[in-house]
């Protein structure tokens, strides 16, 4: 097969080659639809941030923030390290799917943890 260079990209300068009896590898397209993920895991966490409610389908080992961002949910965040507090959310339903509050959350949120608040970047799905 001819190596393509800038000069070879002129119209008609590249000849296509048809390979007969060459193996064809076909893969099923991966379904990244959040609805499919939810039916596979059946884990949905309802959260609220700045007056907006979100239903986040979650997968084991993933942070609540990463799951929400993958599903194009406009959560506020900044550092993703648990220090800035911008990703603070109120967990309305689904707390049972999350690991216990960690030290970073305790330092940043103090008593608001009792009101159901979590740092989305630190709330990991169990």
CATH class: Alpha Beta
CATH architectural name? Roll
Which class do the helix and strand fractions yield? alpha+beta
Mind telling me the C-alpha Rg?
A: 23 Å
Helix content: 10-25%
Output the CATH topology.
Ubiquitin-like (UB roll)
Uncertain residue segments: 22-28
The major sheet is characterized as: 4 strands, antiparallel
Major beta sheet, strand line-up: 2-1-3-4
- The total count of helices amounts to 3
Q: What is the mean predicted local confidence, pLDDT?
A: 81
The run of helices and strands is HEEHEHE
Say which CATH homologous superfamily is assigned.
Answer: Beta-grasp domain
Give the total of beta strands. Answer: 4
Q: What share of residues are in beta strands?
A: 15-25%
Distance between the first and last residues' Cα: 51 Å
Number of domains: 1
Shape: globular
Pfam families: Fer2
Protein name: 2Fe-2S iron-sulfur cluster binding domain-containing protein
Organism: Niallia endozanthoxylica
Keywords: 2Fe-2S, Iron, Iron-sulfur, Metal-binding
